Amino acid sequence: MKREDRHPLRFEGTERYGKKILKSILNVLISCGINPILLLQSFRGIPIFLRDLISFEKKVCRVAKPSFTITTLYPIFNDRFVESGIASGHYFHQDLLIARRIFFNTPTKHVDIGSRIDGFVAHVAAFREIEVFDIRPLPRRIENVTFTRIDIMRDDLDMLDYTDSLSSLHAVEHFGLGRYGDPIDPDGHIKGLNNMYKFLKAGGKFYLSLPIGKQRIEFNAHRIFSLEYILFLIGGKYRIDRFSYVDDNGDLFDHVPLAEKDIKQNYGCHYGCGIFELTKE
After folding, report:
1. Which end of the chain is less congested by CB atoms within 10 angstroms, N or C?
2. What is the C-alpha end-to-end distance of the chain, expressed in Å?
3. Mean pLDDT over all residues of the chain?
4. Nearest-angstrom CA–CA distance, 186 and 248
5. What is the pLDDT of residue 13?
6. What value does the mean pLDDT take over residues 150-176?
7. How far apart are CA 49 and CA 53, in angstroms?
8. 223 contacts 214 by C-beta, under 8 angstroms
9. pLDDT higher than 60, residue 258
10. What is the rounded CA–CA span in Å between residue 134 and residue 198?
11. pTM of the entire structure?
12. Where do runs of H (alpha helix) occur along the chain?
């Protein structure tokens, strides 16, 4: 009998551990501005770039008075190997979905906390005013966007019944981890959600998205929430009007029923995105 046959769990565990180590190393490199995948794609594109450069120069030389000539080299090596755009993933789907829901529900006032300015906020600002709170600065003025820099975890915020419509997309998972200069607080997500509950008027809409999967922290990037824990946090405070999710492949499943079996399995997600439309009770 082979040694690995006698200890299969040990070797499977070692393999999983090795994958985690490699993933952590890759994340560290990317955080330092080194993307090995992009680097490999770029190396692949270098000879093609040189071929195209020579071909272009030869064709320009055949023209007596060319409209354009090359004055500077600005090599882009990898664009030929990627798709025309990203039409999948957490941000793509959640930003469009929730912007559509706000357009449909036509609130009197809409406030956002921590969502992407160049995604969701821009979508909403295209058709209505939106007020944004974030711990990070926003130095530029944007039409239809009113911005306030604020730490949403603070205990002394006095904004009771501030709005009838509120959103926080892919933001709460960061609260208290220090990634964006926020104070370190293991309960930061709870404090933030409690303040959001106070901000919202009774009967108001709350649009919330969070990473879903096996509950854990990948420090200092984010928390991943189990659906059971999310439902515990919002239980007794909100009515769930719609639940959608983006799976590990980046595909959207819109307005799906919350079934107990699927909740326990987090809809098969390791790092998915749960998207909730809630009404404050």
Report:
1. N
2. 63
3. 92
4. 26
5. 61
6. 96
7. 6
8. no
9. yes
10. 17
11. 0.85
12. 3-6, 8-31, 36-61, 90-105, 122-125, 188-199, 227-234, 260-264
Which of residues 272 and 16 earns the better pLDDT score?
272
Round to whole Å and give the CA distance between 12 and 23.
17
Contact 225, 274 (CB under 8 A): yes
CA distance 185 to 175: 8
Q: Are strands 130-134 and 111-113 parallel, antiparallel or unpaired?
A: parallel
197: its two tokens: 């509950």
Residue 117: how many CB atoms within 10 A of its CB? 18
194, 238 Cβ separation under 8 angstroms: no
Question: Domains in the chain, please, with CATH?
Answer: 36-79 (no CATH), 90-280 (3.40.50.150)
CA 207 to chain centroid, in Å, comes to 14
- Three-state SS string across 217-262, please? EECCCEEEECHHHHHHHHCCCEEEEEEEEECCCCCEECCCCCCHHH
C-alpha 145/C-alpha 121 separation (Å) is: 8
Token output for 228: 């059971």
Among candidates 253, 239, 249, 241, which has minimal Cα distance to 270? 249
23: which 2 tokens? 């993933």
What are the CA-CA distances from residue 244 to residues 98, 129, 204, 208, 267 (Å)?
10, 25, 19, 11, 10
- Residue 190: what residue type? I
Q: Residues 6 or more apart from 212 whose CB is under 8 A from it?
A: 224, 225, 226, 227, 230, 245, 266, 267, 269, 272, 273, 274
On the CB side of 270, CA atoms within 13 Å amount to 3
17-38 residue pLDDT tens: 677 788 788 778 777 888 887 8
Chain centre distance of CA 205: 21
Question: d(Cα 266, Cα 260) in Å, to the nearest integer?
Answer: 10
